[in-house]
Structure formats: structure tokens, C-alpha cells
What does this fold into?
Amino acid sequence: EAGVTQFPSHSVIEKGQTVTLRCDPISGHDNLYWYRRVMGKEIKFLLHFVKESKQDESGMPNNRFLAERTGGTYSTLKVQPAELEDSGVYFCASSRSSYYGYTFGSGTRLTVV
Amino acid sequence: AQKITQTQPGMFVQEKEAVTLDCTYDTSDPSYGLFWYKQPSSGEMIFLIYQGSYDQQNATEGRYSLNFQKARKSANLVISASQLGDSAMYFCAMREDAGGTSYGKLTFGQGTILTVHP
It folds into this structure.
């Protein structure tokens, strides 16, 4: 079974630009999660999709972040406009069950300069 | 208050020795799950072991075991017979089931960097 795929693996953008991160979950996994780790801090939950619906977006930092999940398959996380504090590693995870079995991707390292 | 606390920023262990990575948690939910993930330098988060709050026995997966002490709210990871490839960052995480329902949201600790010496 293919794992969770995230791309790009790295992105360097200037402050004020837009960046879109993509996550391809494991096929058949209805649950999809986004997390972020800012340098030196804990990994923080951003949001949770069940199929194409947002179950919980309580961790989204502000309205510059927009997440979508097209047809319950892949998901995108857009940051517009990017700020310096958005730099960090963005992880995506997927699972069949909401209780366990979360498989993480390798993350996208975002650097805003 | 921190929900997940990993008090050891870094740990060192000799190859083939056992090592314990500490994790304490704080929750008022009777139903929850505890996870350990390994993050090598390549960046991916690798699932190691899971313990449910109602599980009577400590979880084990190969060389990994979870020392679950519910009354003390601790969930320490024990790695036996350390290998050089165990050098990585280790994260403890908790899933809380508010009202008995899980939505899968994980809360992570700060992580512990483990270095295995030959």
C-alpha cells in the first residue's frame, strides 16, 4: 500500500506570496489531518477532514489558511498571503479509523523569507 | 498546562542497551489513546506503538514497549537492545475522546532526541 504523499517536500517563498501544499492520503482513508510544527515548538493540529467535509478546523491559525479536500481524495492547504511566522513543517496524516492507525507523510518544509 | 510533557530534550544510549523515554500526560477524559512516533532525520513520522486507556496490558511491538502507568498518567517508551538506526526524534502523542467519541486529533509532546552510540 502506498503511503501518504506530500508535495512539495520543500518550499521557499517570499512574504506576501501564496503557497499551496498538497497531501495525497492512503486510498480508502476517509480521515485526513493536517498538522504543523513551527521551529522549536510542538507539532500542532490544524484540521481534520472526514471525506470531503471539515470535521474540525479549530487549529487553523487564521483566515490566511484555506484547506480543501476535493471529492474526499487529496487535500490542499493554501497559505495566502504567507507571513514569516508561517514557516515550519506541515504534516499530513490519514487513517481509516478516527481512533488509531494514523499514517503520516514526510511533511512539507515551508520557509517564508 | 501542557497536555503531553516529554521532559528529556535529549537522551544518549549505548548500542545494545535499553533506554526509556519519558512521557506524562494530562486529561480528564476516561477514554483516550497514547501513541509514540519516531522521526528520523529524513523527516517522516513513523508509528511505533499504541496504548488505549482501557487496555489492561502494556503494549509491546517488537523491541518497543510502552510502560503505561494510568494512575501516574505516564506512558514511557522503552526501547530494548538499541540499534544505531534508533537514533531519531521521538514524539509522544495523545488522542482524547471527548464524550467517548474520537475524532482523531492528536496532541504532541515536544519530542526527545535519542542518540545511540556504537
Remarks:
- The first strand of chain A starts at residue 5 and ends at 7.
